[in-house]
Amino acid sequence: MVGIVNLEVPVLDEIEKMIIRQAGSTVHYPKNHVIFAAGDIADRIFMIENGWVKIYRLSNDGRRVTVGSIRSPGELMGLAETLWGGERTCYAGAIQNVTMVVVRKNKFEELLTTHPALALKVAKQLGARMREAEAIIHDMVCWQAPGRLALILFKIGDRCGEESRSGIKINLPLTHEELANMAGTSRQTVTSLLNTFRQEKSIDYEGREIRIINPDKLAKWIM
Predict the structure, then answer these.
(1) Is Glycosyltransferase one of the keywords (predicted)?
(2) d(Cα 51, Cα 73) in Å, to the nearest integer?
(3) How confident is the model over 92-135, as pLDDT tens digits?
(4) What percent of the chain is modeled with pLDDT above 90?
(5) How far apart are CA 15 and CA 219, in angstroms?
């Protein structure tokens, strides 16, 4: 589909997950909890077991701006800053109740040394996120707000959508504010655009549940 780049992130297999579980400790964070913040020392990585996490920064006026895609179960988080060292530059917030495994930097580096397949998977995840960052910059430059929002709905639908006779149900209850942060626009604009998409029968929604019911029609916003 025009404008959509397939950015499937390589997830860990069960053996790799077990290796990380044995090296770390399990933690639980409630919805909306800030898992780490800009300025924190980057001394650990996180493996998501359950739930979804958003990566964002704060603008000068205090608004949250999503700078990366949402992170899903099976992904590692906090990789680049931890491996590089220093302080974190972004925030990570729990979209839902989240279960994670936390591994200290020195222990994680030992795992990468002793498990080459895991090291390769980490490199692939970092590579996918570099492409993701490039795609976000491209989208912000090339598309107006309607196109950016349509792209986000497609990407989220691809990652956590469920196909049915009535369309693609997005199984991630995002608020209009969260969608606005991802699209680089205002909450009011997102609300207006979702109403427009529904009126043209591209999508349907009730509360935070969104369904893409006519992908071809929605895709016209990014052609």
Answers:
(1) no
(2) 6
(3) 999 999 999 999 999 999 999 999 999 999 999 898 888 877 87
(4) 57
(5) 39
Amino acid in position 80: A
Distance CA 92, CA 105 (A): 18
* pTM listed for this prediction: 0.81
Q: Return the domain boundaries, the chain.
A: 14-129, 143-220
Residue found under tokens 């909450």: 187
Express each pLDDT in 63-88 by its tens digit: 777 755 788 898 999 999 999 888 99
Residue entry with tokens 């029968």: 201
Residue type, 41: I
Fold (topology level) of 143-220? Arc Repressor Mutant, subunit A (1.10.10)
| pLDDT tier, 7 (very low <50, low <70, confident <90, very high otherwise) | low
Give whole-number Cα distances, 204 to 36, 92, 155, 179, in Å: 34, 29, 17, 16
79 membership: H or E segment, kind and range: helix 79-84
**Can you give the pLDDT at residue 16?**
94
Residues 132/55, Cβ–Cβ less than 8 Å: no
CA distances from 206 to 52, 61, 116 (A): 21, 31, 46
Q: Using alpha carbons only, what angle is made at residue 78 by residues 173 and 81, rounded to the nearest 5 degrees?
A: 140
| In this structure, CATH architecture of domain 14-129 | Sandwich (2.60)
| 63: amino acid identity, one letter | R
Dihedral angle sign, alpha carbons of residues 173, 163, 194, 58: positive
